[in-house]
Amino acid sequence: MPKRLTVAVSQSHTLPTTSATLAALASTAQEAARQGVDLLLVPEAYLGGYPRTCNFGAAVGSRSDEGREQFLQYFHSAVDLGDTPRGAGDDWVARRLELAKGHDHRGGGTREELEKVATETGVFLVIGLVERAGGSLYCAVVYVCPREGCVGKRRKVMPTGSERLIWAQGSPSTLKAVITTIKGVKLTLAAAICWENYMPLLRYSLYSQNVNLYLAPTADARDTWLPLMRTIACESRAYVLSANQCVRRKHLPSWIQGSASEKAKSSSASQGTLKRVHNSAPAKAEETQQFKISSLDQGNIPKAPEPTLVDKAHGVISPSPLHLGGAPSDFDSRTDSPVQQRKGRRRSSNLMPMPDNHFLALPGDSAVDESEENHDTKPNAPADDGDDELVCRGGSCIIGPTGDVLKGPLWDVEDGGLLIARDIDFEDCERGRLDLDVAGSYSRNDAFELRVAGLDLNPPP
């Protein structure tokens, strides 16, 4: 008898507050329920937020006060699930941890809110979030059953790149798979978060537990992500769900992008700096001048052989010996000039005097770049338009157990776009084991062995 369920991923982005994001999650879960969805995955760091573009004022050997203030804001936006810094595991799941006097639950109430959403909608939720415990933050995933509440939680064991500054490392023991039954279908599910999926041994630790539903919440919107998800599906012979946020710059919190007044002030300061550079006057006007290239065709400027462009990146031009100490030639007013010959580009420029009779070519106010359409971008990527610029394009997808793309990838869709795979048959996972079981018949476990600290790699009962 087929073992069929309907699963979905939500390409939702974090909202300015936890309460607003929880409300959006409830709406998404309700819509999923109306669509007959049994299990829903939301992206990495959906609660708490993924602080894209923020460097937290950090450089090798130094941290700024502004960066510490940003971290304070981020710390406050993370959710408190009532777990310990080390991670209490089954004791947290079973609510066996000590309660504070006068309280009936641990943490900030987010766990209880998530359990309420699952119960009211009947949808099994797998939620990416940023969790605070003690003085540290952890990137985590929580599994929420409509009947039993939270049945598991795991923390990312290897944050990527700059994430390591703000996220602590979770325990490998949390890689334990979760068993649940939905409509009579037994699921063994587990999650690998973002670039943990590039860790072959971590992936194998999940394969060894005989997962048939592999979950990959992520923040990676590169073109290389989809091939990775297909590879994992082929290796594991499991269904693979991956959810990412689609984020515009305007969606980033104010402590990352600054307030409107701060941005206006910054823009004004930048314009002022540019204006000062363009209009800076030397001490003696007769010694050097600033020239507008587009006006150098008036006939009273001496002609000279075309100078040499010695630094295309910065537009530094070395003068011809015939006009050393004099005015620059009108080389840029001709259609065959070096700057005009740049790929599809025409512009009015300024020359700024430099030491040793060199000049710096600065773009004028009427710059037009005719080659803009040739810029390297992903297919169909919208043009940069300030606050509407996409800083993450999404790419959520659902993959079948032999690597077939069932749904997605979903690009440039925000505001809770749902990808739904209906009536998928989990017996297809077992059919796929005919020729490949990387943790069993294809493992040569008599010769190769993996051990993970604190984790039983045997399939759970």
Plain-language structure description:
This protein is α+β, with helices and mostly antiparallel strands and 461 residues long. The protein is built from 10 helices and 22 strands. Strand 8 and strand 9 form a beta hairpin. The longest helix is centred in the middle third of the chain and has 20 residues, at 260-279. Residues 273-349 and 365-379 have low confidence and may be disordered.
| Mean pLDDT over the full residue set | 81
Distance between the termini: 21 Å
The counted number of beta strands is 22
User: How many whole angstroms does the radius of gyration measure?
Assistant: 29 Å
What does the main sheet amount to? Answer: 7 strands, mixed
Number of helices: 10
Structural class by secondary-structure content: alpha+beta
The level of helicity is 10-25%
Shape: globular
Beta-strand residue fraction: 15-25%
Short key terms for the protein model shown above:
single chain; 22% helix; 461 residues; alpha+beta; 6-stranded mixed β-sheet
List the helices and strands and how they pair.
Layout: E1 4-11, H1 18-34, E2 39-41, E3 58-59, E4 62-63, H2 65-77, H3 90-93, H4 110-121, E5 124-133, E6 136-145, E7 149-155, H5 163-166, E8 178-182, E9 185-191, H6 200-207, E10 213-215, H7 225-236, E11 239-242, E12 246-248, H8 254-257, H9 260-279, E13 291-292, E14 308-311, E15 316-318, E16 345-346, E17 349-354, E18 358-363, E19 368-369, E20 390-399, E21 405-411, E22 417-425, H10 427-432
Parallel strand pairs: 1-2, 2-5, 9-10, 10-11
Antiparallel strand pairs: 1-22, 3-4, 5-6, 6-7, 8-9, 11-20, 12-20, 13-17, 14-15, 15-18, 16-19, 17-18, 20-21
Helix pairs in contact: 1-4
